[in-house]
Amino acid sequence: MCEEHEDERINIYCLRCEAPTCSLCKVFGAHKDCEVAPLPAVYQRQKSELSDGIAMLVAGNDRIQAIITQMEEICRTIEENGRRQKQHVGLRFDSLCSILEERKKELLQSVAREQEAKVQRVRGLIRQYGDHLEASSKLVETAIQAMEEPQMAVYLQHSKELLKKITDMSKVSMSSRPEPGYESMDHFSINVDHVAEMLRTIDFQPEALGEDDGDGPTDSSEGVGDEESLEAPEATEEVGPRQKPLSSPHGQH
Length: 253
Fold this sequence. Notes:
By secondary structure, the chain is mainly alpha-helical. It has helices spanning about 25, 40-145, 150-170, 195-200, 205-210, 220-230, and strands at about 10-15, 20, 35-40. It has a domain at about 35-170 and about 195-230.
C-alpha cells in the first residue's frame, strides 16, 4: 500500500525517481510531473536484468574456478619438476664425488707402490750391510783370537788364510746406498686449485633456462585475458563456460 495514500495500492513505477508509487501520487502527489510505467512491466524488465546479472556472475565465478584449478595444477607440476631437478642435481654431484674418490684411490695407490718399492730397496741394502757387518764382526773376533796364539808355528799355520780373509773383507764394496733425496716423495704433490675453482663455479646452464618444449606457460598473458573477460560478459551468455586450460609444464628439464 502507498505510504502517503493508505487506501491506494502501489501499481505504477516512477521512471525518473526509480521508485514504485500509486496512481494518486501521479495525479496529485510528488510524482505528478514524472514519467511512469506499469508496475508489472518494470517488474518483468528488472527481474530479467537481475537474472542476466546472476548469469554473468555465475559465469565469471566459473571461469575464476577454472583459473584456480589450472594454477593449482601448475603448482603441483612446479613441485614435481623441482623434486626431479633436485634429484638430478644430487645425482650429478654424486657422480662427481665418485670420480674424485676413484681418482684419489688411483693416486694413493701410485704413492703406495713407489713407497713400497723404495722401502724394499732400502731394506735390502740394510740386510746386505747387516750381513757384511755380522761377517766382519766374526772375522774380527777370529783375528783377535789369532793374535792371542802363543805358539808361532800354530799362528803362522792360520795367519795367511786369515789375512786373506781380512783383505777380501776389506775389498767388499759398500758403496751401494740410496742417492741423496731418495727418501723424498715430493714429486707426488698435486695442485687442485684450478679444479677447486671449477667446482666453485658449477652453476645451472643459462641456455637451459630458455628451454621450453611448449609444455609450460611462458607468460601470464593468457591469465590476464581470462581476468579481463570477467568484467563484462554478455547478459545472454550461458552459465558455466570454460576457458581453454593452461598447459602444465610436464616437459621441463
